[in-house]
Amino acid sequence: MLEWMQKHKKYLVITVWISAFALVFASLVEWGGGGFTAGSNEHIAKVGNQYISRQEYDRLYNILYNQLFQNQEIFSNENERIPQIEQQVYMWLVQTKMSESLADDIGVSVTPNELAHRIITNPNFFDSQNQFNKDIYDRFIVSTGRTTESFEEQFSKNILEEKIQNFPIFQLSTLEIDSLLSANKIRDNLLIRVINKDTLLKNKTIELQENEIKSFWEKNKEKYYKPANYKIAYIALNTDDIEVDDNSLQKYYNENIQHYSENALQTERDLILEDYKKSYTKITSSYMRNMSKFLNSKDKYFGDVIVTLDRDSLMKIKDVLETDKEMPSDFITINYMNLSDDDLMLYPNLLAQIEQEDKSFSPVFEEKSKTWIIPYVLDRSPRSRLSYEDAKPQARDAVWKQKEYEEFRKIAQSSFVNANINSFQDIGFISIADMNMQSFQNESYSILKNLGLEDFEIRSLFSQIISNNQVSGVAFLDSKAVFYSIKNQELPTYGELLNISNGEDDQIAEAKIRDMRNALFEYTTNKYKIIDYRRQN
Predict the structure, then answer these.
(1) Where in the chain is CATH 1.10.4030.10?
(2) Which SUPFAM superfamilies does the UniProt entry name for this protein (predicted)?
């Protein structure tokens, strides 16, 4: 397959999208060398003259993590980051900064009118009459834990990147269609053997020296730190626990009718109900502010999780809300909590807010738990680097894993040289088209699944084989090594090239768009220097 592609590379530009981005990216990024620049505690990378802040990096990581595991049990230590998600977030942010730099260089911008138009035409902010509703828009921003200025700045950046990405796409030529379709339909008869890492390493002992661990720590000091810690007083209420009767809702609507459209109680009841529940935070925020001056003298128990108000406390708030009574001291419970950056998965919006020193008493909403939290920061300890002795267990584990993987690759490569090809299993024919797993549900797929490979491992295997210019070799899949050999190859028939489906036509068009965007990515990567402050080796 690769031989044919290389022979015709003058006419053929094809993207193996699954892994090419990561491979190209890894070869072009300049890692952080032996030390960090000033301010690297606040920044994780630099693209041209623009920095990627740790705050935006953490925020995007948290969003992606929650999207992936929203309805699942967290299977790993919740304080341990997932490297694959971290790298995806990193690449997204770098690409965004490159787009911003390019836009600045060529004079592309987003005007206030463009931003306003995109906001008011966004269906997420429409009411039941399909009209833009500012209250819905404001509540959405509150739910993100960001300020309006911060949200609109990010919205503007998204529009800018969209402008850069959506450059003119020229119509496909006959040569492009024939070349891409031919390459896509070449079939390789593949023989493989799957070996688990534990099998290869079962008789191998990994030994570590003290100087290895310390040298690794010296090069990676910034990875080992004590997170920022906060002691907070707070009041929290779960919106699902707030009981609402028709009379209370009607009274609230009558008092705030100027904020709603006509007959909104019938047409936008859910919206009014949400606003009514939010009004509880005005009472609790005011109460927390009044009580804050007495908190240092009180006995405190600092818990590790947020505790919400019980029914009796909520009924007291309702009484104050509807009667305008004075709030006596200690009329609802104020709780206390130890919070750190390690709690980002649980309380992302709360942490984002209390990092800003002037944001005490402002209600913050955690969407995942449907909880309003009114915090007051009693004490804060900034993020600080761990000493070698404190970081040693983690550094030792990292060095051990690194050496284990290096040994795994070495043994696998050595074993492959002496492997008997008769022990390989014939899985049939594969092609580039099979990398689209939706269409790859044939006998070869069943064999690979029976050999213990997951879909993402199958994609990675195909990507490595197609990206290699050898007819045989070893593909590495984290905890597995796959020995492979291409037995023979079949070219597409004339009839297969003539009978192109609408789906194939769309795929070729998408491939061209990807290639053009990759060319833009390559241009910006060559133009703007990338420094990753996370890496030290």
Answers:
(1) 21-173+502-532
(2) Triger factor/SurA peptide-binding domain-like (SSF109998)
